[in-house]
Amino acid sequence: MTQLDPASEHAAPASTATAEHATESTAREENSGHQKTPLVGKHTSWVHVARTALIAAAVVCIVLLAFAWPSVTSKVQHLPVGAVGSAEQIAQIEALDTNDALELHTVASREEAVSLIQERDLYGAIILGDSPEVLTASASAPAAAATLTQIGTGLRLSLQGAALAQMEAALKASAAGSVPETGSIPSDVARATNVTITDVVPLAETDSRGAGLAVSGLPLAMGGMEGGAMISLFVSGTWRRLAAIAGYGILAGLGIAGILQGWFHILQGDFIANAAAITFGTVATAATIVGLNSLIGRLGILVGAIITIFVGNPLSSLQQPLEFLPGLWGSVGQYLVPGATGTLVRDLSYFPRPIRRSRCGCSPRGRYSAPS
User: Fold this and answer.
1) Residue 52 clears pLDDT 90, i.e. is over it
2) In the prediction, which pLDDT does 98 show?
3) Where does residue 181 rank: exposed (0-12), middle (13-18), buried (19+ CB within 10 A)?
4) pLDDT of residue 233
5) Residue 93: what pLDDT?
6) How high is the pLDDT of residue 366?
7) How many other CB atoms are found less than 10 A from the CB of residue 371?
């Protein structure tokens, strides 16, 4: 029989006890670790609490400023409008425009004014003479059309007031036994006290106030930002990211155009052209965010989102003419993706005619220069 060593018999229980003690110590450490973890969050320093609240409040204020500033600071100013009439008649309109609301440009005829409006060189026109008329284009900018409509109402009241004054003078002259001179009553006052208001390029009946086209800018911008962020986080490799951007842009363009045109009937014109315009916009935004992420890391996603949502979208001039924004901010907005995309989509829907800059010397948005 094999005899056991007494030393080994005493050693075995000792080693077993040591192992059990180590196991219990590890368990206690793990349990204590699990218990201590929540305590760290409960004992956040007051300085950190104040700093977090301050940063959150600052972010909310910045967001409010970004979206409210264009509406609060905008005003009716420098609106490019054509004027058909004699030099004296146009001078009278300019004299009444004390707030520089209009930027009048002399146009030879009504037909030329209509052509310039359809090419987006002018927002409207005032036709003076025997048959006064105000031409508007609500599809170009509902705010500009509303301004011109108010001008047409004021012109009608002015003509009616002038006509009443001339009639009163004629009655007094007749009562005194004298005959007023025929030429003393202007023809546009004596024969025309009604002003016709004509919408040359009206909005579609399915979006009669232009609200759908105006509010679609923010989803378009957010869509491009969301695609760029997802591709930056979940796709690696230069060519794979480029392929993802292209594929996302095409699918998003078709989907968004299908909703805005096929379902809501907000967009007009050719579906493929509208889908291509939206594709270009989403690709440009997504590529910008992916590129910034490649350059400066995850911070690039935040920078791209700020440029797109808090700078580009408020300055896109989808809800008002770019001339209404202070300074050059309206023009700056047209160089950013939301403004460029919104203008392109609007042009494709309502202003498909090519712009003949060689004839009138215009910039892309309403800077008409009368030919010499």
Assistant:
1) yes
2) 78
3) exposed
4) 96
5) 85
6) 42
7) 8
DSSP 235: -
User: Within 10 A of 263 (CB to CB), how many other CB atoms are there?
Assistant: 8
User: Mind listing the pLDDT tens digit for each residue in 337-363?
Assistant: 999 999 999 999 999 876 544 333 444
Compute the distance between CA of residue 120 and CA of residue 349 in angstroms, rounded to an integer. 13
Do 113 and 135 form a contact (C-beta atoms < 8 A)?
A: yes
Residue with tokens 């009278």: 92
> Which residue, 357, 360, 350, 307, is CA-closest to 332?
307
Strands 133-136 and 124-127 turn out to be: antiparallel
Q: What's the rounded Cα separation, in Å, for the pair 86 and 95?
A: 14
Angle between helix 337-350 and 271-296 (nearest 10): 170
Report the distance separating Cα 175 and Cα 191, nearest Å. Answer: 23
Give the model's pLDDT for residue 168.
Answer: 63
In this prediction, residue 25 has a pLDDT band, given cuts at 50, 70 and 90, of low
Beta-bridge partners for 133: 127, 196
Contact status, residue 264 vs residue 313, Cβ threshold 8 Å: no
Roughly how many angstroms between the first and final C-alpha of the chain, as a whole number?
Answer: 127
Instruction: For residue 316, give the nearest of 294, 339, 336, 335 by alpha carbon.
Output: 339
Position 14 pLDDT exceeds 60? no
82-102 as b/e: b if 16+ CB within 10 A:
bbbbeeebbeebeeeeeeebb
Flag whether pLDDT at 312 surpasses 80.
yes
Q: Do the beta carbons of residue 311 and residue 66 sit within 8 Å?
A: yes
- C-alpha distances (whole Å) from 114 to each of 105, 121, 127, 139, 206 are 13, 10, 11, 14, 24
- Would you say residue 7 has pLDDT above 90? no
**pLDDT at position 47, please?**
92
Tokens describing residue 69: 């500033």
Report CA 289 to chain centroid distance, whole Å.
Answer: 19
Residue 3 is predicted with a pLDDT of 52
Q: Computed over its alpha carbons, how large is the radius of gyration of the chain?
A: 35
Angle ∠(95,99,102) on CA atoms, nearest 5: 75
C-alpha to C-alpha distance for 316 and 335, rounded to whole angstroms: 9
What are the tens digits of pLDDT across the range 194-203?
889 999 999 9
Spatial distance between the Cα atoms of 120 and 364, rounded to a whole number of angstroms: 8
